[in-house]
Amino acid sequence: TYVVAGTTNGCTTIDSVTIYVKPLPVITIEGDGKGENRDSICYSDEINLTASGAGEKGMYTWNTGIINDVLTVSPLNTTNYTVVGTDTFGCAKDTTFTVGVIPLPSFEIKGQELICQNDTNKIWLEYEDKSLTFEWAGTYEMDGDTIFPKVENNESYIVTAKDIYQCAKTKSLG
Predict the structure, then answer these.
(1) Phi and psi based region of residue 104 (left: phi greater than 0; alpha: psi -120 to 50; beta: remaining)
(2) Residue 97 in contact with residue 29, Cβ under 8 Å?
(3) Which of 10, 33, 78, 79 has the fewest CB atoms within 10 Å, i.e. is most exposed?
(4) pTM of the predicted model, to two decimals?
(5) Contacts (Cβ under 8 Å, ≥6 apart) of 52
């Protein structure tokens, strides 16, 4: 409370004013991505970032220019997103959220691309990340990472690799 006194022509007047200090809002951002902090996406995927903390009628302004509590983004590399949350009293605070981008699995399909009908082909994979899992399309027999498909027509052999985050990449031979 502030008190002010003023005197004019021998008359003193006293007045006071109370100033209330409103704390800044605590702004947070949550993602719906992958990983323990749900802050990562597979390359070319999207993530929803949800800001909160400015109250029911608060306003959220993102560094992308979007004014909304939810921001959907699909960055191609690790990117920081900042939001300013403003409550109904006009008090504003910002926070930043980093979205990490997980590269797609890296592998190569090797084998003959031209064989005679009803021949058996040997196709194998070359990759370094031993945590990858693979799904093959078609009829085949497998021995480790080598696949022996039975070629009946002009077929492509398709394989999808997935990493521990379920980021997937598909390639074909033929």
Answers:
(1) beta
(2) yes
(3) 10
(4) 0.78
(5) 27, 28, 29, 30, 69, 85
Burial class (CB in 10 A: 0-12, 13-18, 19+), 90: exposed
Q: Which residues of the chain have pLDDT under 70?
A: 113-121, 145, 149-155, 174
Please tell me the distance from the alpha carbon of residue 135 to that of residue 103, in angstroms, as a whole number.
Answer: 19
Q: Mind listing the pLDDT tens digit for each residue in 29-51?
A: 999 999 889 999 999 999 999 99
Which tokens belong to 154?
A: 């002009």
Convert 52-88 to b/e letters by CB count within 10 Å (16 or more is b): bbbeeebbbbbeeebeebebebebeeeeebebbbbbe
What DSSP string runs through 8-76? Answer: ETTEEEEEEE--PPPPPP--EEEE--BTTTT-EEETT--EEEEEE-S-TT-EEEETTS-BSSEEEE--S
Q: H/E/C letters for each residue in 98-141?
A: EEEEECCCCCEEEECCCCCCCCECCEEEECCCCCCEEEEECCEE
Residue with tokens 């990449």: 169
